[in-house]
Amino acid sequence: MSSPDSAPSDINWDQLRQVALEMTKRAYAPYSNFSVGAAAITTTGSIVSGTNVENVSYGLTLCAECGLVSDLVAHSAGKLVAVVVVSGSGEHCAPCGRCRQLLVEHAAPHALINTAEGPRPVVDLLPGHFDVSRLKDG
Ligand code: THU
Question: What's the DSSP call for residue 54?
């Protein structure tokens, strides 16, 4: 799958939901008991995924989206095209602020994320986000 010129229309959302839900079963979340799974299809056609990994120091917790982006980069899987994040109950899980920044940086231009209202552009997660073009203003 190459980078789409417009929003992708042939996404198998059910498959991504299933992979994300499967990932929630591998979560390490003994402190919050809130398991999260993330899955995405990428510009290379790969499926990448992640789950949350908590830590006794709490603040070091890695969200499921951190694992997702790590999987993407570690496998040279291109950019995210369609993303699903769910909790252990299978409900859509809204990405936290830090993960919105992570997802936006690694998303293809027309990438979508499943939300409570259905698929939305990933870039809409973080209007006015910090990106590489802003580094020149320093
Ligand atoms: N969590 C994620 O994995 N992704 C998010 O975007 C929101 C929060 C995790 C972190 C923590 O392990 C648990 O959910 C409760 O906050």
Answer: -
32 lines ligand 1 (CB under 6 A): yes
Reading the chain (138 residues) residue by residue, the pLDDT tens digits are 555 567 778 999 999 999 999 999 999 999 999 999 999 999 999 999 999 999 999 999 999 999 999 999 999 999 999 999 999 999 999 999 999 999 999 999 999 999 999 999 999 999 999 999 989 877
Specify the pTM: 0.95
Three-point CA angle 137, 69, 112, nearest 5°: 85
Residue 49 Cα to ligand 1 midpoint, Å, equals: 14
